[in-house]
Amino acid sequence: MTLPASLSGWLAHCERLHPATIDLTLVRVERVRDRLGLGFNCPVFTVAGTNGKGSTCAMLESILRQAGYRTGVYTSPHLVRFEERCRIDGEAVDAAALLPHFEAVEAARQGETLTYFEFTTLAILRLMASLGLDAVVLEVGLGGRLDAVNAIDADCAVITCIDLDHMEFLGPDRESIGREKAGILRSGRPAVLGDPVPPQSVLDHARAIGADLRCFGADFNYRGDRQQWAWAGRTRRHNALAYPALRGANQLINASGVLAALEALHHRLPVSAQAVRSGLAMVELPGRFQIVPGEPTLVLDVAHNPHAVATLAENLDQMGFYPRTHMVLGAMKDKDIGSMLARLMPLADAWYCADLPTPRAATAVELEALCRESPPAGAGGSHERLIQCHPNPRSALLAALDAADPADRIVVFGSFYTVGGVLEGGLPRRAAKHLG
Protein backbone atom coordinates (compact mmCIF):
# COMPACT_ATOMS: atom_id res chain seq x y z
CA MET A 1 0.00 0.00 0.00
CA THR A 2 0.98 3.62 -0.44
CA LEU A 3 1.53 5.01 3.04
CA PRO A 4 -0.60 8.02 4.01
CA ALA A 5 1.28 11.32 4.09
CA SER A 6 -0.85 13.06 6.73
CA LEU A 7 -2.38 12.33 10.11
CA SER A 8 -5.89 12.55 8.66
CA GLY A 9 -4.87 9.96 6.07
CA TRP A 10 -3.57 7.59 8.73
CA LEU A 11 -6.72 8.02 10.83
CA ALA A 12 -8.86 7.21 7.81
CA HIS A 13 -6.69 4.12 7.22
CA CYS A 14 -7.16 3.04 10.86
CA GLU A 15 -10.94 3.31 10.54
CA ARG A 16 -10.96 0.83 7.64
CA LEU A 17 -8.85 -1.96 9.14
CA HIS A 18 -11.30 -3.71 11.45
CA PRO A 19 -15.02 -4.38 10.93
CA ALA A 20 -15.85 -3.46 14.53
CA THR A 21 -15.24 -0.19 16.36
CA ILE A 22 -14.74 -2.04 19.65
CA ASP A 23 -13.38 -5.61 19.81
CA LEU A 24 -12.04 -6.19 23.30
CA THR A 25 -8.97 -8.40 23.39
CA LEU A 26 -5.29 -7.84 24.13
CA VAL A 27 -4.01 -10.59 21.85
CA ARG A 28 -3.61 -8.49 18.70
CA VAL A 29 -2.16 -5.50 20.53
CA GLU A 30 0.34 -7.63 22.47
CA ARG A 31 1.61 -9.27 19.30
CA VAL A 32 2.20 -5.92 17.62
CA ARG A 33 3.66 -4.48 20.85
CA ASP A 34 6.22 -7.28 20.95
CA ARG A 35 7.18 -6.78 17.30
CA LEU A 36 7.69 -3.08 18.05
CA GLY A 37 9.75 -3.82 21.17
CA LEU A 38 7.50 -1.34 22.93
CA GLY A 39 8.13 -0.50 26.58
CA PHE A 40 9.00 2.33 28.96
CA ASN A 41 12.10 3.00 31.04
CA CYS A 42 10.29 5.37 33.40
CA PRO A 43 7.42 5.05 35.91
CA VAL A 44 4.01 4.48 34.33
CA PHE A 45 0.71 5.43 35.96
CA THR A 46 -2.35 3.74 34.44
CA VAL A 47 -5.76 5.20 35.30
CA ALA A 48 -9.06 3.34 34.90
CA GLY A 49 -12.58 4.00 36.18
CA THR A 50 -16.01 5.13 35.06
CA ASN A 51 -15.69 8.83 35.90
CA GLY A 52 -12.81 11.01 37.03
CA LYS A 53 -10.12 9.46 34.82
CA GLY A 54 -9.39 12.60 32.82
CA SER A 55 -9.23 14.79 35.90
CA THR A 56 -6.95 12.31 37.66
CA CYS A 57 -4.58 12.21 34.69
CA ALA A 58 -4.53 16.00 34.44
CA MET A 59 -3.72 16.45 38.14
CA LEU A 60 -0.97 13.82 38.04
CA GLU A 61 0.51 15.56 35.00
CA SER A 62 0.30 19.04 36.51
CA ILE A 63 1.94 18.08 39.82
CA LEU A 64 4.70 16.06 38.15
CA ARG A 65 5.47 18.93 35.78
CA GLN A 66 5.63 21.35 38.69
CA ALA A 67 8.12 18.97 40.30
CA GLY A 68 10.32 19.33 37.23
CA TYR A 69 9.60 16.05 35.49
CA ARG A 70 9.16 15.65 31.75
CA THR A 71 5.77 13.98 31.30
CA GLY A 72 3.80 12.18 28.63
CA VAL A 73 0.04 11.74 28.94
CA TYR A 74 -2.28 9.63 26.80
CA THR A 75 -6.02 10.23 27.11
CA SER A 76 -9.09 9.56 25.01
CA PRO A 77 -11.32 10.55 23.39
CA HIS A 78 -10.38 14.01 22.17
CA LEU A 79 -12.64 17.06 22.08
CA VAL A 80 -11.64 18.77 18.84
CA ARG A 81 -8.32 17.48 17.43
CA PHE A 82 -6.87 13.98 17.57
CA GLU A 83 -3.53 15.41 18.71
CA GLU A 84 -5.12 16.26 22.08
CA ARG A 85 -4.88 12.55 22.95
CA CYS A 86 -1.13 12.85 23.50
CA ARG A 87 0.38 15.60 25.64
CA ILE A 88 4.13 16.01 26.01
CA ASP A 89 5.13 18.43 28.75
CA GLY A 90 1.57 19.69 28.87
CA GLU A 91 1.26 20.43 25.13
CA ALA A 92 -0.66 18.47 22.52
CA VAL A 93 1.69 16.59 20.24
CA ASP A 94 2.37 17.91 16.76
CA ALA A 95 0.69 15.85 14.04
CA ALA A 96 3.94 15.47 12.08
CA ALA A 97 5.64 13.86 15.09
CA LEU A 98 3.09 11.03 15.05
CA LEU A 99 3.54 10.01 11.40
CA PRO A 100 6.68 7.82 11.73
CA HIS A 101 5.05 5.95 14.59
CA PHE A 102 1.93 5.22 12.56
CA GLU A 103 4.28 3.90 9.87
CA ALA A 104 6.06 1.70 12.42
CA VAL A 105 2.79 0.22 13.68
CA GLU A 106 1.69 -0.47 10.11
CA ALA A 107 4.96 -2.28 9.42
CA ALA A 108 4.70 -4.30 12.65
CA ARG A 109 1.02 -5.08 12.15
CA GLN A 110 1.75 -7.84 9.61
CA GLY A 111 -1.89 -8.32 8.75
CA GLU A 112 -3.33 -7.92 12.26
CA THR A 113 -6.73 -6.27 11.95
CA LEU A 114 -6.30 -3.66 14.67
CA THR A 115 -9.20 -1.42 15.61
CA TYR A 116 -8.87 2.35 15.29
CA PHE A 117 -8.29 2.62 19.03
CA GLU A 118 -5.71 -0.17 19.12
CA PHE A 119 -3.71 1.18 16.18
CA THR A 120 -3.70 4.79 17.38
CA THR A 121 -2.90 3.75 20.96
CA LEU A 122 0.15 1.79 19.82
CA ALA A 123 1.35 4.72 17.70
CA ILE A 124 1.06 7.17 20.57
CA LEU A 125 2.70 4.79 23.04
CA ARG A 126 5.62 4.30 20.65
CA LEU A 127 6.03 8.06 20.28
CA MET A 128 6.11 8.55 24.06
CA ALA A 129 8.51 5.62 24.54
CA SER A 130 10.95 7.27 22.11
CA LEU A 131 11.20 10.56 24.01
CA GLY A 132 13.09 9.59 27.18
CA LEU A 133 10.35 10.88 29.47
CA ASP A 134 10.52 10.95 33.27
CA ALA A 135 6.94 9.79 33.84
CA VAL A 136 4.05 8.54 31.73
CA VAL A 137 0.32 8.72 32.54
CA LEU A 138 -2.04 6.46 30.58
CA GLU A 139 -5.83 6.73 30.66
CA VAL A 140 -7.69 3.49 29.95
CA GLY A 141 -10.20 3.81 27.13
CA LEU A 142 -12.85 1.24 28.10
CA GLY A 143 -12.81 -1.19 30.99
CA GLY A 144 -9.23 -2.15 31.76
CA ARG A 145 -8.43 -5.84 31.50
CA LEU A 146 -8.78 -6.00 27.70
CA ASP A 147 -8.15 -2.35 26.84
CA ALA A 148 -5.18 -1.67 24.55
CA VAL A 149 -3.58 0.54 27.21
CA ASN A 150 -3.28 -2.52 29.46
CA ALA A 151 -0.62 -3.92 27.11
CA ILE A 152 1.76 -1.73 29.15
CA ASP A 153 2.46 -2.81 32.74
CA ALA A 154 1.58 -0.10 35.23
CA ASP A 155 4.06 0.78 37.96
CA CYS A 156 1.10 2.32 39.78
CA ALA A 157 -2.53 1.60 38.86
CA VAL A 158 -5.28 4.04 39.84
CA ILE A 159 -8.96 3.13 39.73
CA THR A 160 -11.32 6.06 40.13
CA CYS A 161 -15.05 5.89 40.89
CA ILE A 162 -16.87 2.93 39.33
CA ASP A 163 -20.46 3.08 38.14
CA LEU A 164 -22.72 1.65 35.45
CA ASP A 165 -21.53 2.42 31.92
CA HIS A 166 -20.61 0.41 28.80
CA MET A 167 -22.55 -2.50 30.31
CA GLU A 168 -22.84 -4.25 26.93
CA PHE A 169 -19.05 -4.75 27.06
CA LEU A 170 -18.21 -4.78 30.78
CA GLY A 171 -21.15 -6.51 32.45
CA PRO A 172 -24.51 -5.67 34.05
CA ASP A 173 -23.46 -4.46 37.51
CA ARG A 174 -20.68 -2.73 39.47
CA GLU A 175 -19.11 -6.05 40.48
CA SER A 176 -18.72 -7.16 36.86
CA ILE A 177 -17.48 -3.73 35.78
CA GLY A 178 -15.08 -3.58 38.74
CA ARG A 179 -13.64 -6.96 37.77
CA GLU A 180 -12.79 -5.58 34.32
CA LYS A 181 -11.28 -2.38 35.74
CA ALA A 182 -9.15 -4.43 38.17
CA GLY A 183 -7.37 -5.98 35.20
CA ILE A 184 -4.92 -3.05 35.15
CA LEU A 185 -3.51 -4.02 38.58
CA ARG A 186 -0.12 -5.74 38.76
CA SER A 187 1.31 -8.14 41.32
CA GLY A 188 3.45 -6.45 43.97
CA ARG A 189 2.80 -2.96 42.61
CA PRO A 190 0.69 -0.11 44.05
CA ALA A 191 -3.05 -0.24 43.37
CA VAL A 192 -4.83 2.98 44.38
CA LEU A 193 -8.61 2.68 44.74
CA GLY A 194 -10.18 6.13 44.77
CA ASP A 195 -13.79 4.91 44.92
CA PRO A 196 -15.03 5.38 48.51
CA VAL A 197 -17.09 2.17 48.14
CA PRO A 198 -15.19 -0.01 45.67
CA PRO A 199 -16.79 -3.19 44.32
CA GLN A 200 -15.73 -6.28 46.23
CA SER A 201 -14.47 -7.75 42.95
CA VAL A 202 -11.72 -5.12 42.80
CA LEU A 203 -10.60 -5.80 46.36
CA ASP A 204 -10.66 -9.55 45.80
CA HIS A 205 -8.58 -9.36 42.62
CA ALA A 206 -6.04 -6.99 44.18
CA ARG A 207 -5.53 -9.35 47.11
CA ALA A 208 -5.47 -12.44 44.91
CA ILE A 209 -2.56 -11.12 42.81
CA GLY A 210 -0.74 -9.55 45.77
CA ALA A 211 -1.04 -5.93 44.66
CA ASP A 212 -0.01 -3.20 47.11
CA LEU A 213 -3.60 -2.16 47.80
CA ARG A 214 -4.21 1.45 48.90
CA CYS A 215 -7.85 2.23 49.63
CA PHE A 216 -9.64 5.53 50.12
CA GLY A 217 -10.72 5.82 53.75
CA ALA A 218 -8.20 3.28 55.03
CA ASP A 219 -4.81 4.13 53.51
CA PHE A 220 -5.52 7.74 52.55
CA ASN A 221 -8.23 10.29 53.22
CA TYR A 222 -9.03 13.98 53.17
CA ARG A 223 -10.92 16.55 55.19
CA GLY A 224 -11.77 20.12 54.42
CA ASP A 225 -13.87 23.21 54.99
CA ARG A 226 -14.93 26.05 52.71
CA GLN A 227 -11.44 27.57 52.65
CA GLN A 228 -8.96 24.70 52.38
CA TRP A 229 -8.46 20.96 52.65
CA ALA A 230 -5.91 18.48 53.96
CA TRP A 231 -4.79 15.01 52.87
CA ALA A 232 -3.18 12.17 54.80
CA GLY A 233 -1.68 8.96 53.45
CA ARG A 234 0.41 6.16 54.86
CA THR A 235 3.59 8.16 55.31
CA ARG A 236 2.90 11.66 53.99
CA ARG A 237 0.56 14.53 54.81
CA HIS A 238 -0.43 17.74 53.08
CA ASN A 239 -2.15 20.45 55.11
CA ALA A 240 -3.81 23.77 54.28
CA LEU A 241 -4.17 22.96 50.58
CA ALA A 242 -6.10 25.25 48.27
CA TYR A 243 -8.87 23.57 46.33
CA PRO A 244 -7.91 22.17 42.91
CA ALA A 245 -8.40 24.50 39.97
CA LEU A 246 -10.73 21.90 38.45
CA ARG A 247 -14.20 22.75 39.69
CA GLY A 248 -16.70 20.33 41.15
CA ALA A 249 -17.64 18.52 44.33
CA ASN A 250 -16.00 15.30 43.09
CA GLN A 251 -12.52 16.73 42.52
CA LEU A 252 -11.28 16.22 46.08
CA ILE A 253 -11.89 12.47 45.71
CA ASN A 254 -9.92 12.51 42.46
CA ALA A 255 -7.15 14.63 43.99
CA SER A 256 -6.92 12.26 46.96
CA GLY A 257 -6.28 9.33 44.64
CA VAL A 258 -3.64 11.37 42.80
CA LEU A 259 -1.76 12.13 46.03
CA ALA A 260 -1.96 8.46 47.05
CA ALA A 261 -0.45 7.44 43.69
CA LEU A 262 2.35 9.99 44.06
CA GLU A 263 3.01 8.77 47.60
CA ALA A 264 3.23 5.20 46.31
CA LEU A 265 5.97 6.10 43.79
CA HIS A 266 7.67 8.78 45.88
CA HIS A 267 10.87 6.73 46.00
CA ARG A 268 11.14 6.98 42.21
CA LEU A 269 9.48 10.35 41.61
CA PRO A 270 10.00 12.60 44.65
CA VAL A 271 7.47 15.42 44.69
CA SER A 272 7.67 18.40 47.04
CA ALA A 273 4.76 19.91 48.94
CA GLN A 274 5.13 23.06 46.83
CA ALA A 275 4.84 21.05 43.62
CA VAL A 276 1.59 19.56 44.94
CA ARG A 277 0.23 23.01 45.78
CA SER A 278 1.25 24.56 42.48
CA GLY A 279 0.16 21.57 40.43
CA LEU A 280 -3.33 21.49 41.92
CA ALA A 281 -3.65 25.27 41.57
CA MET A 282 -2.62 25.30 37.90
CA VAL A 283 -4.27 22.15 36.52
CA GLU A 284 -6.49 22.61 33.47
CA LEU A 285 -8.83 20.23 31.67
CA PRO A 286 -11.35 21.50 29.12
CA GLY A 287 -14.88 20.19 29.30
CA ARG A 288 -14.93 19.07 32.93
CA PHE A 289 -17.34 21.44 34.61
CA GLN A 290 -15.58 24.20 32.68
CA ILE A 291 -17.21 27.55 33.37
CA VAL A 292 -16.89 30.25 30.74
CA PRO A 293 -17.66 33.47 32.64
CA GLY A 294 -19.65 36.29 31.15
CA GLU A 295 -23.24 36.91 30.19
CA PRO A 296 -24.79 34.43 29.98
CA THR A 297 -22.62 32.03 31.97
CA LEU A 298 -21.59 29.00 29.91
CA VAL A 299 -20.87 25.58 31.47
CA LEU A 300 -19.17 22.81 29.44
CA ASP A 301 -19.19 19.26 30.82
CA VAL A 302 -18.62 15.95 29.03
CA ALA A 303 -20.81 14.10 31.58
CA HIS A 304 -22.31 11.20 29.62
CA ASN A 305 -23.67 8.68 32.14
CA PRO A 306 -26.03 8.92 35.13
CA HIS A 307 -23.24 8.99 37.73
CA ALA A 308 -21.41 11.85 36.00
CA VAL A 309 -24.66 13.73 35.36
CA ALA A 310 -25.60 13.40 39.04
CA THR A 311 -22.28 15.09 39.89
CA LEU A 312 -22.98 17.76 37.25
CA ALA A 313 -26.41 18.39 38.79
CA GLU A 314 -24.85 18.77 42.24
CA ASN A 315 -22.25 21.19 40.90
CA LEU A 316 -24.86 23.23 39.04
CA ASP A 317 -27.02 23.39 42.16
CA GLN A 318 -24.09 24.91 44.09
CA MET A 319 -23.48 27.66 41.54
CA GLY A 320 -26.13 29.98 42.91
CA PHE A 321 -29.26 31.48 41.38
CA TYR A 322 -29.86 31.91 37.66
CA PRO A 323 -33.26 33.04 36.33
CA ARG A 324 -33.21 30.39 33.60
CA THR A 325 -31.00 27.44 32.69
CA HIS A 326 -30.71 26.37 29.05
CA MET A 327 -29.49 22.80 28.32
CA VAL A 328 -27.63 21.90 25.12
CA LEU A 329 -27.72 18.09 24.86
CA GLY A 330 -26.20 15.48 22.56
CA ALA A 331 -25.75 11.88 23.72
CA MET A 332 -25.02 8.32 22.63
CA LYS A 333 -28.10 6.16 22.17
CA ASP A 334 -26.61 3.35 24.32
CA LYS A 335 -26.55 5.56 27.42
CA ASP A 336 -29.27 5.68 30.08
CA ILE A 337 -30.51 9.01 28.77
CA GLY A 338 -33.75 8.86 30.75
CA SER A 339 -31.87 8.74 34.06
CA MET A 340 -29.56 11.53 32.90
CA LEU A 341 -32.53 13.75 32.06
CA ALA A 342 -34.29 12.98 35.33
CA ARG A 343 -31.36 14.40 37.30
CA LEU A 344 -31.30 17.67 35.38
CA MET A 345 -34.99 18.33 34.69
CA PRO A 346 -35.49 20.15 38.02
CA LEU A 347 -32.77 22.62 36.97
CA ALA A 348 -33.72 23.08 33.32
CA ASP A 349 -36.00 25.59 31.62
CA ALA A 350 -35.15 24.92 27.98
CA TRP A 351 -33.61 22.08 25.98
CA TYR A 352 -31.69 22.29 22.70
CA CYS A 353 -31.20 18.76 21.40
CA ALA A 354 -28.42 18.17 18.87
CA ASP A 355 -27.51 15.53 16.32
CA LEU A 356 -23.93 14.25 16.67
CA PRO A 357 -21.59 13.11 13.87
CA THR A 358 -21.53 9.40 14.77
CA PRO A 359 -23.97 6.55 14.16
CA ARG A 360 -23.72 5.67 17.87
CA ALA A 361 -25.55 8.87 18.80
CA ALA A 362 -29.21 9.34 19.56
CA THR A 363 -30.78 11.71 17.06
CA ALA A 364 -31.99 15.14 18.09
CA VAL A 365 -35.55 13.97 17.42
CA GLU A 366 -35.08 10.99 19.76
CA LEU A 367 -33.65 13.25 22.45
CA GLU A 368 -36.52 15.69 22.02
CA ALA A 369 -39.03 12.86 22.58
CA LEU A 370 -37.23 11.78 25.75
CA CYS A 371 -37.25 15.35 27.03
CA ARG A 372 -40.99 15.64 26.41
CA GLU A 373 -41.61 12.36 28.25
CA SER A 374 -39.78 13.60 31.36
CA PRO A 375 -41.79 15.29 34.14
CA PRO A 376 -42.17 19.06 33.54
CA ALA A 377 -40.15 20.19 36.55
CA GLY A 378 -38.38 23.31 35.29
CA ALA A 379 -36.46 25.57 37.62
CA GLY A 380 -39.37 27.95 37.75
CA GLY A 381 -42.01 25.33 38.37
CA SER A 382 -44.18 23.21 36.08
CA HIS A 383 -44.29 25.76 33.25
CA GLU A 384 -44.07 24.77 29.61
CA ARG A 385 -40.49 24.13 28.57
CA LEU A 386 -38.88 25.06 25.30
CA ILE A 387 -37.57 21.94 23.52
CA GLN A 388 -35.89 22.22 20.13
CA CYS A 389 -33.95 20.04 17.66
CA HIS A 390 -30.73 21.16 15.96
CA PRO A 391 -28.42 19.58 13.35
CA ASN A 392 -25.27 19.94 15.49
CA PRO A 393 -24.12 21.17 18.92
CA ARG A 394 -22.89 24.52 17.60
CA SER A 395 -26.29 25.31 16.10
CA ALA A 396 -27.93 24.32 19.39
CA LEU A 397 -25.61 26.61 21.35
CA LEU A 398 -26.28 29.54 19.01
CA ALA A 399 -30.03 29.05 19.54
CA ALA A 400 -29.52 28.96 23.31
CA LEU A 401 -27.43 32.14 23.16
CA ASP A 402 -30.16 33.87 21.19
CA ALA A 403 -32.83 32.84 23.68
CA ALA A 404 -30.88 33.45 26.89
CA ASP A 405 -30.94 36.65 28.91
CA PRO A 406 -27.59 37.99 30.19
CA ALA A 407 -28.24 36.67 33.69
CA ASP A 408 -29.10 33.15 32.50
CA ARG A 409 -26.94 30.03 32.36
CA ILE A 410 -26.27 27.67 29.43
CA VAL A 411 -25.08 24.10 30.08
CA VAL A 412 -23.55 21.98 27.29
CA PHE A 413 -23.29 18.28 28.19
CA GLY A 414 -23.93 14.67 27.24
CA SER A 415 -20.86 13.60 25.25
CA PHE A 416 -17.34 14.51 24.21
CA TYR A 417 -18.87 15.06 20.78
CA THR A 418 -21.28 17.63 22.23
CA VAL A 419 -18.65 19.71 24.01
CA GLY A 420 -16.18 19.24 21.18
CA GLY A 421 -18.84 20.34 18.73
CA VAL A 422 -19.28 23.72 20.40
CA LEU A 423 -15.52 24.21 20.84
CA GLU A 424 -14.59 23.33 17.26
CA GLY A 425 -13.70 26.49 15.40
CA GLY A 426 -13.80 28.52 18.62
CA LEU A 427 -16.73 29.48 20.78
CA PRO A 428 -19.41 31.66 19.15
CA ARG A 429 -18.58 35.31 19.52
CA ARG A 430 -21.07 36.07 22.27
CA ALA A 431 -19.45 33.37 24.43
CA ALA A 432 -15.87 33.66 23.17
CA LYS A 433 -15.58 37.38 23.99
CA HIS A 434 -15.60 36.49 27.69
CA LEU A 435 -12.43 34.40 27.29
CA GLY A 436 -10.34 37.48 26.63
Describe the structure in your own words:
This protein is of the alpha/beta class and 436 residues long. The protein has 2 domains: 7-282, Mur-like, catalytic domain (UDP-N-acetylmuramoyl-L-alanine:D-glutamate ligase), CATH 3.40.1190.10; 290-435, Alpha-Beta Complex (Protein-Tyrosine Phosphatase, Chain A). Helices cover 37% and strands 16% of the residues. It has helices at 7-17, 27-36, 53-66, 95-109, 116-129, 167-170, 174-181, 200-209, 251-264, 273-282, 306-317, 337-344, 364-373, 393-403, 416-423, 429-432, and strands spanning 44-48, 71-74, 86-88, 91-92, 135-139, 156-159, 190-193, 212-215, 221-224, 229-232, 237-241, 290-292, 297-300, 325-329, 350-354, 386-390, 409-413. The strands form 3 sheets. Strands 4-3-2-5-1-6-7-8 form an 8-stranded mixed beta sheet, sandwiched between helices. The protein has a 6-stranded mixed beta sheet with strand order 12-13-17-14-15-16, with helices on both faces. β9 and β10 form a beta hairpin. α4 crosses α5 (116-129) and α11 runs parallel beside α12. The longest helix has 15 residues, at 95-109. It is globular. The protein starts with 6 loop residues before the first helix and ends with a helix. Residues 378-382 have low confidence and may be disordered.
